[in-house]
Amino acid sequence: MNTLQHFLGIKGLQKELLLKILNTANSFITDDGKAFKSVPLFKDRTIVNLFFEPSTRTRSSFEVAANHLGAHVLNFDTDTSSIKKDESLVDTFKNLEAMHLNLFVIRHSIAGTAELLAQHASPHVSIINAGDGCNEHPTQAMLDVLTIMQHKASFSKLRIAIVGDILHSRVARSQIYALTTLNVAELRIIAPRKLLPTDIDLERLGVKIYHNLSSGLVDVDVIIVLRMQEERNSDNSLPSKAEFYSEYGITNDRLKIAKPDVIVMHPGPMNRGVEIDSEVADGPHSVILKQTTNGVAIRMAIMSLLGNKGE
Amino acid sequence: MNTLQHFLGIKGLQKELLLKILNTANSFITDDGKAFKSVPLFKDRTIVNLFFEPSTRTRSSFEVAANHLGAHVLNFDTDTSSIKKDESLVDTFKNLEAMHLNLFVIRHSIAGTAELLAQHASPHVSIINAGDGCNEHPTQAMLDVLTIMQHKASFSKLRIAIVGDILHSRVARSQIYALTTLNVAELRIIAPRKLLPTDIDLERLGVKIYHNLSSGLVDVDVIIVLRMQEERNSDNSLPSKAEFYSEYGITNDRLKIAKPDVIVMHPGPMNRGVEIDSEVADGPHSVILKQTTNGVAIRMAIMSLLGNKGE
Amino acid sequence: MNTLQHFLGIKGLQKELLLKILNTANSFITDDGKAFKSVPLFKDRTIVNLFFEPSTRTRSSFEVAANHLGAHVLNFDTDTSSIKKDESLVDTFKNLEAMHLNLFVIRHSIAGTAELLAQHASPHVSIINAGDGCNEHPTQAMLDVLTIMQHKASFSKLRIAIVGDILHSRVARSQIYALTTLNVAELRIIAPRKLLPTDIDLERLGVKIYHNLSSGLVDVDVIIVLRMQEERNSDNSLPSKAEFYSEYGITNDRLKIAKPDVIVMHPGPMNRGVEIDSEVADGPHSVILKQTTNGVAIRMAIMSLLGNKGE
Q1: pLDDT score, position B44
Q2: C31, C170: one domain
């Protein structure tokens, strides 16, 4: 546990560490589940939200988590246009670090940016990856597995399907690493051929690939619906919205193929009527808002585990 | 009093509630009037400023008020372009609510947005309307009546004139509801015919309409000058600035028509030389900066009255 | 000392006051130099960052400093387009002042803006200039002299060279006033003829002017490299980047002309490969990140010295 200086990605993390994060997150939720405990672990400290991509929910979730830990939040929103080169991005980071700031949450459109800053970070400084290009979004994956853990028995008995645009999804990559590390019984990916990633050895990880939604949903306990990320569609790899909905959209009818107590998840923001029908999103199987709630607890947990070293 | 879950508009509120808000606001101002008391009613809580229209003063006023109550403020500024449909606006709101945030201040260019979110809010969540389209801006009206109350004897003896662009003014609508509920002796509206609203039954409310400024100002105790809102002039209903100034601009000369101790108010930001002359704005009858001061106290009061239920 | 209501510029300040600020700043740094002390001098107060020019580092530095003093920070970022006239800028300021806010940090692209607001400020309100056009950036100059003081013996024995675009540099103006007031042995300016300022009587201040870098660097203890400010190049007075680098860029080779223990400073953000080589910026003579660290301490010091009067 004493190696957790940064939280850059799920890939390569040990199962024990993931479980420790999950249990810590649960401990920050009050018994009735209606609030987060305020734990002043970061009293008088300033946490930096360094967001180089527009974000509202994730940034807010980190800010709320930081507030519950007693910290100030320095919001440093900017677009990549003002910081054009890796070199000056590092300069920006080193400058903030020189202000004796030692916990940075970073989001950037380029894969590997969090890792890059971690390489340049001083020994007492921690970096949390809040999404880097199409690479990883590890806090999202952790809140997803926390939500699954709260609703289902043991990971080792679960069939889980991730549906949609895997290719452009950093969320999916982090989920795949987390769920295989937690030894789920069966992890399925349901996607059109051209929306599969080429940078992960799915076979070696034991992930099953389906191109047909109806086949892929048979008997699953959990459906994770991904967002159609049109903003990353520079290669025009995405199908039309109507086409995607007709082949891969999650509807109440298609839910019947899965287990009767299936839960449906989505990282948000949802494209209703594209990858998910409103009846499902707002229906009894949906745990989508629960995911958002868990996001705050997970971020409190990760910050607190890093923070012990950060001080 | 125990029905104050939200604060969406003045319309329909009881006189007793308005007086309770006014008295609470006064109690948050120090005896010498030079500061606000710091009352940690919201210690460790996070209040959300959800602003879908550019705003500086109102947002700042709520943030200062929240700070005096011990709260963190999550600023969630965005333009409507990124949240195009009501549906996804509700999704955004429900997501923030899922982070166990329970007090939202909302401004939006579309009338009814605060009401819409209130309909979707969970029982323990409160919404304050900080301006919705041309509908209402109730905290502004409350700070205005607080300012009047501090300078004049009894509402029931006052003649008050609201001057200018009533049609586009959510401020005017809230003022009309507040001042008629508080039973002012006489409420006058002074405006060109085409800048009168069509959605309020002014006659039933007992409001007198004047098209001539000189007639309307006779013997008034209070003049409320409205801002020419060129940004809402999509229907080209506004006269030219010079034309408006010549017919309706408040000058020192025209002040002489009113009572000798008349006070002049303006919700800001002012168009000096259009609806108000600088001599008046900065002159001895102006209580315009006093309004701004009272804005913080009123917002503290409203938050604190909602907050008792919010926890 | 009791005259420090505002901090608008270095010009005209007494040596004793500069030394008091420097010593106060040092007192806010922990003995090991790795953190700032948290001193709740501004507990429950709200400090306003009123930035009319895009800024990240300076705004962040003030925010971090304010947090260490226990204050909330109200960030009021805007571009000049929304506040077009001095008159309405003053209105904006007077409105914020009316919210009983009494410490303002202001940056504006027009020289004299901080002074303008100070003229309009109420007696209990303080203004800190965080950069006004090409006029002054006094907190930057103070952090620079603090950095020099920490690395060198006595100001009266130092030869210091400021290199680059003096014409457009508010930093350089403030440095010149600070360093001459502190009676450095020799202050040199090294710049092409067309990048010299015309509004300072350098001769009367005893500043020596060099147009040749190699001559100017002989035996200096401190080199202050300025940023090429292409954003202020409306008069096309700047040379090309390559041209500037070849004649005035600070390289390891050129450092050898200076004293062996020379320190190199830069206010940031750096244009690496233009006014400074990366080998120098990241090399053993560089104290550039130390400057950033000192920026927080200096801003804490200045706020705290103003703050004693501000309450």
Answers
A1: 82
A2: no
AA identity, residue C284: P
Q: Do A179 and A225 reside in the same domain of the chain?
A: yes
**The pTM is what?**
0.94
In a domain, C207, yes or no: yes
Q: Are B155 and B119 in contact (CB under 8 A)?
A: no
CB contacts, 8 Å: A87 with chain C: 272, 278
Mean pLDDT by 10 residues, chain B (311 residues): 82 97 97 93 92 88 96 79 59 95 95 96 96 97 98 96 95 98 98 92 95 98 92 74 95 98 96 95 98 98 77 40
Closest partner CB to C56 (pick from A78, A97, A98): A78
Task: Tell which of A63, A100, A311 to mutate to test the C interface (max C CBs under 10 Å).
Answer: A100
Cross-chain residue pair B36–C94, CB shorter than 8 Å = no
Residues B94 and B62 in one domain: yes
SS3 A208: strand
Q: Side chain identity at A212, as an amino acid letter?
A: N
Binned at pLDDT 50, 70 and 90, residue C307 comes out as low
Question: What six digits make up the tokens of A46?
Answer: 């300033």
Together in a domain, A145 and A125: no
Look at residue B1 and tell me if it is in a domain: no
Q: Which amino acid is at A304?
A: S
**pLDDT for the residue A288:** 98
Number of domains in chain B: 2
Q: In this complex, which of C64, C272, C295 lies closest to A87 when CB atoms are compared? A: C272
Q: Which residues of chain A are within 8 Å of residue B94 when distances are taken between CB atoms?
A: 289
- Give the neighbor-by-neighbor strand order of the sheet with A222-225: A208-210, A186-190, A159-163, A222-225, A263-265
Same domain, A108 and A125: yes
Does residue C80 share a domain with residue C30?
yes
CB contact under 8 A, B269 and C74: no
Please tell me the predicted confidence (pLDDT) of residue C84. 46
Q: Are residues A91 and A200 in the same domain?
A: no
Chain B residues whose beta carbon lies within 8 Å of the beta carbon of residue C88 = 269, 272
The arithmetic mean of pLDDT across residues C188-217, rounded, is 95
Q: What residues contact C189, with CB distance under 8 A and at least 6 apart? A: C161, C162, C163, C166, C172, C176, C196, C202, C207, C208, C209, C210, C216
What CATH number is given to the structural domain containing A55?
3.40.50.1370
Tell me the pLDDT tens digit for each residue of A144-181. 999 999 999 899 999 999 999 999 999 999 999 999 99
- Tens digit of pLDDT for each residue in C110-141? 999 999 999 999 999 999 999 999 999 999 99
**Nearest by CB: C296 against A87, A99, A124:** A99
pLDDT at site A54: 78
Same domain for C184 and C64, yes or no, is no
Range of the domain at B236: 138-287
Q: Is residue A7 part of a domain?
A: no
CB A155 within 8 A of CB A177: no
The verdict on residue B8 lying in a domain is no
Residue of A nearest to B96 (CA): A57
8 Å CB contact of B74 and A64: yes
- Cβ–Cβ under 8 Å, residues B279 and B263: no
pLDDT at C87 over 90: no
Would you call A92 and C67 a contact, using CB atoms and an 8 Å cutoff?
Answer: no
